[in-house]
Amino acid sequence: MTQASVLELIQKIEHESGQLTKPERALLITDGSVTRLLEAFGSAPVGVRTIQQNILPVPEKIAEFLEISPGDDVNFREVDLYNKNDGRVLIHAISYAPLKHLPTGAITRLIKEDEPIGMIMRDEKMESRREILSIRKITHPSDDHRQNTREKFQLSRSYRIIHNSRPIFYIEEQIPLPLFTEDTTIKVITPSRLHIGLLDMNGGGGRVDGGAGITLADPGFIFEISKSDAFSLTSEEREVAHQVQPILDKLIMNGLSIPPVHIHIQQSIPFHSGLGSGTQAALGIAAGIGAMTEQKLSAEELIALSGRGGTSGIGIRAFFMGGLLVDAGHRFGPGRKKDSFAPSASSSGAGAAPLVGRYAIPEDWHFILAIPDGFAEIHGQLEYDMFQRFCPVPQSEVQALSHILLMKLIPSVIEEDLEQFGEAINEFQNYGFKKCEISLQPPVIMDIMDAMRDAGAAGAGMSSFGPVVYGVCDSNTNAIRSAVQNIMNQEKGGRTVCTKGRNSGVEVIKNGHKMQLIY
């Protein structure tokens, strides 16, 4: 591979994932000693930690690179190159070395000592050159990136070392991203949320809204923010950046000053599906920009910038706190916080609803999400019109929901009583504004809820305006997912996610170190 083609691959990676630092670019393109580069960039000695090493028959594909016969003996070695001062892993590498091509002294040192290959070759006076074969960004098969223990290895390259006109090493290296940060890099990992339902959309008692919701570990947004010569917004899935752009515009309109940065959306929450994507995106970007510019933005300032929480405070509380959350809505009537029924997007002046309680979600409860494709998105003007159409709901149904919430749903979480929690979720679907929300969806939504219960879920409901349907269980996850996937496949398709509750809020990581947000 020529130097020109290597540069083209680096430019492709940067276009997809954001600008690399100069050290990262140098490590990808170098045809010299990787160890020396690491020591220069890190200002610290580099050590080698052998993970495994053995003599084995060479695989056919590797034999081609080494120009030997399949089955010939090679020394296989897996190592970490690490910073001796702080123990941080700098490079993860595997290598194959054909024994018949190596001098005896090199073989002995390779097998017996934790030494960089470059130093062995230097001491053994082995003149060589490196031939780069590939450079790529690693894609991970896991659905849950945060559970993937190899997540930090995001760049990879392979090359071979030529000595006396024949290959003596085939090497694959994985490089953490970012490795050496020349400028501040911010990573923001948000939760998502299920909105169980709005509690009081009657308003006769002088308050309106209120309700309960559950913070989820997945899906969530992962934003990576780095300094740049000009502002740019990219995403793993192209349409996500377009969906986030209006949220970014509103943040700017609300007073957020955004410097020249690159924002890359590595992972996202499906939009307009009932998982709180707008709130998490707005707060996540605002918090990330605040950390990048070292503005000590308070929670109140972040909420004001986001313009969220004017109806339900669940998404905001989920962002900062996690857990099962219950809020008390807003004062309602002429001259009060709210004087009409409206969604959060049209109620930014109402402010965040007061929190009534936060409760830890049991660790062994699973939440199965069914995210069907092809459903009409209820947001914007359509969402506003729905509030005008259905409100006020009967006071008797508000009272029924209040009883279910106080006497069944909350105590079931405190006592970790899954059966009673499921009953509460099931009953919540039959009253008040939640009943109205479900009425807007086609019958297949009820079919999915019924299928979840039949397959073993303790309870099932629709989050917010949908179309996401969720079921809660402590077993039978595969059976529940299979049952609802079959139903979605008969319609326009969709996907399922198995996740758990999240009892903590957003993570903001600055140059690899987690920051503390005070709420």
Provide key terms for this protein:
519 residues; alpha+beta; Chorismate lyase; Alpha-Beta Plaits; 2 domains; six-stranded antiparallel β-sheet; six-stranded mixed β-sheet
Fold and architecture overview:
This protein has 519 residues and is of the alpha+beta class. The chain has two domains: 3-176, Chorismate lyase (3-Layer(aba) Sandwich), CATH 3.40.1410; 187-508, GHMP kinase, C-terminal domain (Alpha-Beta Plaits), CATH 3.30.70. Helix content is 34%, strand content 28%. The protein has 16 helices and 21 strands. It has helices at residues 3-17, 22-29, 34-42, 60-66, 104-112, 117-123, 238-253, 277-292, 299-306, 314-320, 380-390, 395-414, 418-428, 432-439, 443-454, 477-490, and strands at 46-57, 73-83, 89-98, 129-137, 153-163, 166-176, 185-189, 192-200, 207-216, 222-227, 232-235, 261-267, 324-327, 330-331, 355-359, 366-372, 459-462, 469-473, 494-500, 507-510, 513-515. The strands form four sheets. It has a six-stranded antiparallel beta sheet with strand order 1-2-3-6-5-4. Helix 7 packs across helix 8 and helix 8 (277-292) crosses helix 9. The chain is elongated, with a radius of gyration of 28 Å. Residues 141-153 have low confidence and may be disordered.
